[in-house]
Amino acid sequence: MAIGTRAQEVSKLALALEEQDKAIFELKGNTSNTNTRIDQLAELISGLTLQQNRLMQQLQIGESNSSRHNPTGTDCGYYSAATRIGKLEFPRFGGDGVKDWLYRCEQFFEMDRTADELKLKLVVIHLEGKALQWHQAYMRAVAAESRVVKWEDYVAAVVARFGDTGYEDPMADLKNLRQSGSLKEYMDEFDALANKVDIKETDALSHFLGGLKTEIQLPVRMFHPTTLAQAYSLAKLQELTYGALHKPGFPAPKLHHLFPSSSSVHPSTGLNTHSKVNTTAQPRLTTATLSKTTGNGEVMEEEVDKDQEEEEVQEMSAPQISLNALLGTRSFQTMRVVGTVGRKLLHILVDSGSTHNFLNADMGRKLGCSTERVPAVK
């Protein structure tokens, strides 16, 4: 029994060993296949790397050749439709501002790398109004002559049709430009003229400063600006400063020309005035007779024509006095001066809010002045 059992166990172990050997053999076969595939992949990767290097060399050679033919370094043979359809928008043209429009077109062509044969087609799509009408007539005339339209020829034709007359002199206009209104208006006119001429920034700066108003020009020159940007900033600051310093202050008091309707004699000069006033519904002073009594008793009279407007001639109204004059206080409308009557001093308070000057009662008695009752001041 024991011998038979051991023989069975040995046979089982022998079978297990055989199966392990088979598995090991299969693993070795799979490993060899895997190594073979890895080698193939390595060869494929090396081949792709070589092809990539060759393509890069060809691209570099092509770019160098194109840069030789095109100094700007742009590949005009390349056309990017995605860029044109994207955020870039081609400028439209209806006949006004042809130079500005052509400048924007050239900038678009440079950014988009548009080929020369496609430039005219893009332009036609964005023409409108009288510009489109002219284009149609121009193309029919060219087709009748069987000519090929180049972009340079088309630009010359557009400028000849919609450009300036040719008799304008923007340089002379720039030299003669002077500021007559606000600084913003002057800067707009200056930029429009400076865009039409080719001058250095130092010359443009000299013309700009020379055209400013005197109250702005002199302070700006004091800082010696070296660029137009500095001159613009200083001029704006000076305009604000000048406007703040010259704001109107207190309004000037109105002056009323009052002439008495009856004759009156000035006690100190001996002048006697007689006014001839019309008795119409709206009285108006026409003539005035000025007479002076001399020391010998002779009277010298002189008539003076007065052509005053009606609003300047006002009838004598009830006397008015301001609160400053009553209280004796000082303000920006009052002025205190010293006068003399004979050998006596007087302190005179001049107030623009009063219609009459009032004399102190005690001072009047000292001077020997006669008094006359008048209606009470309200």
Automatic annotation (TrEMBL):
The superkingdom of the source organism is Eukaryota
| UniProt domain Retrotransposon gag: residue ranges | 121-213
The residue ranges crossing the membrane are none
InterPro entries recorded? Retrotrans_gag_dom, RTL1-rel
Name listed for the protein in its UniProt record: Retrotransposon gag domain-containing protein
Q: Which organism is it from?
A: Punica granatum (Pomegranate)
